[in-house]
Write a structure and sequence with these properties.
Blueprint (H helix, E strand, L loop, with lengths): L3 H21 L9 E4 L7 E2 L3 E8 L2 E2 L9 E8 L18 E4 L5 E4 L4 E10 L15 E5 L1
The structure holds copper (II) ion (CU).
Copper (II) ion binds next to β5.
Length: 144
């Protein structure tokens, strides 16, 4: 016989396991690790194509596919934001999510005229964001 107390406990355990399971698959990031734009500031005006330099402190860059503690590779998010669910999965690869799996620390980016938001997000060797996420503030730029 299952008491209501026993049932409640079973539910609590089930939720706790569900909450822990995705995190267990993600790679930890050291406290204080940061990604940032080296050469672009919020509000910058640029001509396309333009150079974007990716800064990283507290961790190292490794190419995709190379599993090494405290490393990752850069991703550039263009005109998009990440949902909490997406932060636990491999990043999509499309015009809004650019991967630099070769270990690149800068890129030439081509965008149409107008305002765009850019954000950097480090991913682990399987393209999954770290825990805690290593993500820059989003910046808005204008392409003239
Ligand atoms: Cu990637």
């Amino acid at each position: 016989m299952i008491t209501s107390f026993g049932m409640a406990r079973a539910l609590v355990v089930a939720f706790a396991v569900a909450a822990l399971a995705p995190a267990a698959a993600q790679t930890p990031a050291p406290a204080g690790a940061k990604v940032y734009f080296i050469n672009l500031k919020d509000g910058a005006e640029v001509e396309s194509p333009f150079l974007v330099q990716f800064g990283l402190s507290g961790m190292g860059v490794a190419p995709a596919g190379v599993e090494k503690p405290n490393t990752g590779h850069h991703h550039l998010l263009i005109d998009t934001t990440m949902t909490p669910e997406q932060m636990k999965e491999p990043l999509p690869a499309d015009d809004n999510h650019k991967h630099f799996g070769g270990g690149q620390t800068e890129a030439m980016v081509t965008l149409p005229k107008g305002q765009h938001t850019l954000q950097l997000l480090l991913g682990d060797w399987t393209h999954i964001p770290h825990v805690p996420p290593v993500m820059s503030e989003p910046i808005t730029i204008t392409v003239r």
